[in-house]
Design a protein that fits this description.
InterPro entries: 3'-5'_exonuclease_dom, Exonuclease_MUT-7-like, Mut-7_DEDDy_dom, Mut7-C_RNAse_dom, RNaseH-like_sf, RNaseH_sf. One of its GO terms (molecular function) is 3'-5' exonuclease activity. It comes from Sitta europaea (Eurasian nuthatch). It holds the Pfam family DNA_pol_A_exo1. By secondary structure, the chain is of the alpha/beta class. The chain folds into 4 domains: 154 residues; 86 residues, no CATH class; 193 residues, Ribonuclease H-like superfamily/Ribonuclease H (Nucleotidyltransferase, domain 5, 2-Layer Sandwich); 88 residues, 3-Layer(aba) Sandwich (Rossmann fold), CATH 3.40.50. It contains 31 helices and 12 strands. The strands form 3 sheets. It has a 6-stranded mixed β-sheet with strand order 1-4-3-2-5-6, with helices on both faces. A 4-stranded parallel β-sheet has the order 10-9-11-12, with helices on both faces. Helix 21 links the parallel strand 5 and strand 6. Helix 13 runs parallel beside helix 15 and helix 28 crosses helix 31. The radius of gyration is 33 Å and the shape is flat. The two termini are 22 Å apart.
C-alpha cells in the first residue's frame, strides 16, 4: 500500500464523527473484502487499528459499542482470516459479554459452520467453557486435525480430555459408527479419514506435541505394543533375522507387567512354539500362571524342576557358518573397548582427535517401534585402524551432568565433526546426527559445522556391480541385503550380520553379539573406504576418488595450512596424494545476470533457488544422464553444478574451474550461498525474481 493512500485513509478517519461505525458501514456494503488477499477493505481496517492506537480517546464503551459488537459478530464467520484479529481488536470483542459470545458460536455450530465456530472460539479464547468432544468431532470428520490441535493448544486440561476421548474411540470394542451417524450429511465429510489407524496416529502426534503422559491413552498404547509384538514374532519365526536373546529383550520390554499383552504373548507362543515352547518362554518372561492356558501351565510344572530355562539348541557349526557367510572384524576382540567412564573416554579422544586421522563413526539406539519421542543415541562407535571405541553415551552424559560439566561431551563431538584435518566416515550421517541432537540439545547445529566428512551413503549410489569375492552359492536362501550391508557385500565380498540391528541398545550390560555387531558397523566403513580408494575403477568410480572424497567442499573456509596439506592417510597407513591447491586470489565479482549454470538432477532445489536470485539456470531432468550436463555446459558456456562422484566424471569434460562440487547434505539456501561465494557472484535487490515470470 502506498504511503499516499495510507495518509488519505487516516485523514478520512479524522473527518469521521464515529470511525468504528463508519468502517462497519463500509464493510457491510462491500463484497470485495470477502475474498482472499489484501483488499482495499483490509488495508483500511488495519490502518484504523493503527490509528486507534495513536488516538486512545476513540474507543467507545457502553450500549453503543455493544450494538457495534453485535454487528461485527454477524460478519466474522464470513470474513477472511487476515481480518479476524484486526476486527476483534478494533471492536474490543474480548470485553463483550462471554455468554453472548458463547451463544453466537453455538448458533454457528448449529448451522453446521463447525470450522468457523472453532476458529472464532480460538480467537476469543472460549474453549474452557465448551465441550471439547462436541466441538472437535465434526472437525475430525472433515479431516481438520490441524484445527483440532490449535483448538486445544493452550489448554492442558482440554488436551487430556481430547486424548482420552480419542483413546476411547480407538478401543476395538467401540463402534465408530456411533460417532459418525449424526454427521452423515456433513459437507466435506471424509469417513475414510476417520478410522482407528488415523486416530491412533493423531493420538501419538498430540502426545508428542503436548508432552502428555502416554499412560493417559491405554487403548492406543496397547494396540501399538500389540503390533510391535506381532512384528517381533514375524522377525524371529518367519523372517528368522533376530537372535533369541535379542528377541527376548524386546519381548520383555514390550509386554512388561501388562496382563492383556501377556495373554496375547502366550497365544502367539502357542501358535509358533507349541505348548512346551510356550511354557519355556512363559518361565523366561516370568508370566503369571493365571494368564496361561491349561496345556502351557502343565508344561510349566514340568519345567519348574529345572534350575534354569533351557538354551535353544544351536547347530554345532553355527559359529563356523557365520564366519563363512558374514563380514568379520579383522582386529582382535581385546581391541574393542567399551567406555563408561570419562577417564577412559578422554584417552580415546586423544587418539581420535589427531590431525590426519581417519575415523569410522556409527551410532545405535533402541528401536522405538513407532512409540512417542525421537530415538536417543545409546552407543557411539568410533573405529580407528587398530581399535574400536564404544562410548556408553547415557552413562557418560549422566556422569558429566553429576560433575557439573554437561558441555563436556558435546564439546568433544563438535571438535571431531568440525575438524577438517580428521576424515570422518559414516553411512546416512544425517539420521545419526538428528538422533544425536535429540540426545543432547547442544549438538543440534553439528550438521551445519561439519568438515572433512565422507558419507558412504552417497558413494553407495554410485558403486557399480558386485565385488569379485561375492558368490551366490555361498549365500544360500536369505533375506536380500540392503543399505550398508549391501555396500559391504559389494565392496568386501560378504554382508554384515544384521541380526543384532534391532537390539535393545539401552540395556546394560550389552551382550557379546551386540558388542561385535556395533564394532563391525563402524569398522567396515574404514575397510570400504580403503578398498574404494585403492581400486575405484573396478566399482565404476573415478580414478581420483580419494581426492574427491577427502577434498569435499566444506562450510567453513579452510586455513592456508589445511589447503596446502598434501597427504591424507588411509586406514592402512598408506598415503593418498591429495589435490595440490595453491592459494589464489578470488575471481572478479560478477552479477547473477552474467552467471549461467547447468544443475545436475540431484540439485534441482539449488537450481530453482539460484534462478530466484537472477542466475541463468538450466536443470537436468530426473531421467537425464549426468553426462548431458557436460554437453550443455560446452555448447552454452555454462558452469556445471554437481555433487558426489558425478563431479569426477564431469570435471574432466569441461575447462578448468567450469565444474563445481556442491555439498548435498546442505539445504538449497546454504548450497546457493556456497556457489555464490565461490564464484564471487554479487546479488543486488533488483536481481531477485528478475527471471521469474
Amino acid at each position: 500500500v502506498s504511503r499516499q493512500l495510507k495518509e488519505e485513509i487516516r485523514r478520512g478517519f479524522a473527518r469521521l464523527e464515529d470511525p468504528l461505525a463508519g468502517l462497519l458501514a463500509m464493510l457491510e456494503s462491500s463484497s470485495d473484502w470477502k475474498g482472499k488477499g489484501q483488499s482495499l477493505e483490509y488495508c483500511i481496517t488495519t490502518e484504523l487499528q493503527l490509528w486507534i492506537k495513536a488516538h486512545p480517546a476513540v474507543p467507545q464503551s457502553g450500549t453503543k459499542l455493544k450494538k457495534l459488537q453485535a454487528r461485527v459478530l454477524g460478519m466474522l464467520s464470513q470474513c477472511p482470516a487476515n481480518l479476524l484479529d484486526p476486527l476483534i481488536s478494533i471492536y474490543q470483542l474480548h470485553t463483550a459479554d462471554r455468554n453472548y459470545l458463547l451463544e453466537h458460536v453455538s448458533h454457528l455450530y448449529l448451522q453446521g459452520s463447525y470450522k468457523e465456530a472453532a476458529i472464532l472460539s480460538i480467537k476469543l479464547k472460549l474453549q474452557p467453557d465448551q465441550d471439547v468432544e462436541k466441538m472437535c468431532t465434526p472437525l475430525l470428520l472433515q479431516d481438520k486435525a490441524n484445527l483440532v490441535e490449535d483448538y486445544v493448544a493452550e489448554y492442558p486440561e482440554l488436551q487430556r480430555k481430547l486424548l482420552q476421548t480419542l483413546d476411547t474411540w480407538c478401543d476395538p470394542s467401540f463402534s465408530i459408527s456411533d460417532i459418525t451417524r449424526p454427521y452423515q450429511g456433513l459437507s466435506k465429510y471424509k469417513p475414510e479419514k476417520f478410522n482407528r489407524r488415523v486416530l491412533s496416529k493423531l493420538v501419538f502426534r498430540l502426545l508428542q506435541r503436548f508432552n502428555v503422559d502416554p499412560a493417559l491413552c491405554p487403548n492406543v498404547i496397547n494396540q501399538r505394543h500389540l503390533r510391535t509384538l506381532n512384528y517381533l514374532f514375524y522377525k524371529r519365526f518367519v523372517e528368522k533375522t533376530m537372535t533369541e536373546e535379542n528377541w527376548a529383550d524386546h519381548i520383555q520390554s514390550t509386554v512388561g507387567e501388562n496382563r492383556w499383552l501377556q495373554g496375547h504373548l502366550v497365544q502367539s507362543l502357542l501358535r509358533h512354539c507349541g505348548a512346551r515352547g510356550a511354557a519355556r518362554w512363559a518361565q523366561h518372561c516370568r508370566l503369571p500362571p493365571d494368564v496361561l492356558p491349561r496345556a502351557v501351565a502343565e508344561e510349566l510344572q514340568r519345567l519348574h524342576i529345572q534350575d534354569r530355562v533351557e538354551e535353544v539348541t544351536k547347530a554345532d557349526n553355527y559359529e563356523a557358518r557365520k564366519k563363512k557367510d558374514y563380514y568379520q572384524l579383522p582386529i582382535p576382540r581385546e581391541n574393542i573397548r567399551f567406555l563408561q567412564t570419562w577417564e577412559e573416554t578422554l584417552q580415546c579422544w586423544e587418539k581420535v582427535l589427531q590431525p590426519g586421522q581417519v575415523v569410522g563413526v556409527d551410532m545405535e539406539w533402541k528401536p522405538s517401534f513407532g512409540m512417542v519421542g525421537k530415538p536417543r543415541v545409546a552407543l557411539l562407535q568410533l573405529a580407528l585402524k587398530d581399535e574400536v571405541f564404544l562410548l556408553d553415551l547415557p552413562r557418560l552424559l549422566e556422569q558429566a551432568e553429576a560433575e557439573g560439566e554437561k558441555e563436556k561431551l558435546p564439546y568433544f563431538i563438535q571438535m571431531l565433526y568440525s575438524d577438517a584435518a580428521i576424515t570422518k566416515l559414516g553411512y546416512g550421517m544425517s539420521g545419526d546426527l538428528s538422533s544425536l541432537a535429540a540426545t543432547c540439545s547442544a549438538l543440534k547445529d553439528t550438521e551445519k559445522q561439519m568438515q572433512g566428512v565422507v558419507d558412504l551413503l552417497a558413494v553407495d549410489k554410485q558403486v557399480d556391480g558386485l565385488s569379485p569375492e561375492h558368490s551366490h552359492e555361498e549365500r544360500g536362501v536369505r533375506q536380500p541385503e540392503k543399505g550398508l550391508s549391501l555396500l559391504v557385500q559389494h565392496v568386501l565380498g560378504k554382508p554384515l550380520d544384521k541380526t543384532e540391528q534391532l537390539s535393545n541398545w539401552e540395556k546394560r550390560p550389552l551382550r557379546e553379539e551386540q558388542i561385535l555387531y556395533a564394532a563391525s558397523d563402524a569398522y567396515c566403513l574404514l575397510e570400504i573406504y580403503e578398498r574404494l580408494c585403492k581400486d575405484p575403477e573396478s566399482f565404476g568410480l573415478g580414478s581420483d576418488l580419494p581426492d574427491s572424497l577427502v577434498g569435499k567442499e566444506s562450510k567453513k573456509p579452510r586455513t592456508k595450512k589445511q589447503l596446502n596439506k598434501q597427504e591424507v592417510p588411509s586406514p592402512s597407513g598408506q598415503e593418498f596424494q591429495g589435490p595440490r591447491m595453491e592459494p589464489s586470489s578470488p575471481p572478479a565479482p560478477i552479477s547473477p545476470q552474467e552467471f549461467s549454470v547447468v544443475c545436475d538432477n540431484m540439485l534441482q532445489g539449488l537450481g530453482r533457488y539460484l534462478r530466484c536470485l537472477g542466475v541463468d539456470v538450466r536443470l537436468l531432468d530426473n531421467e537425464d544422464d549426468h553426462r548431458k550436463a557436460a554437453e550443455i555446459a560446452r555448447q552454452e558456456g555454462r558452469v556445471i553444478l554437481t555433487s558426489g562422484l558425478a563431479y569426477q566424471t564431469l570435471r574432466s569434460q569441461v575447462g578448468e574451474g567450469r565444474c563445481f562440487s556442491v555439498n548435498c547434505s546442505k539445504k538449497a539456501k546454504e548450497q546457493a550461498l556456497q556457489v555464490l561465494k565461490h564464484f564471487n557472484v554479487q546479488v543486488s535487490l533488483s536481481d531477485i525474481f528478475s527471471r521469474c515470470q
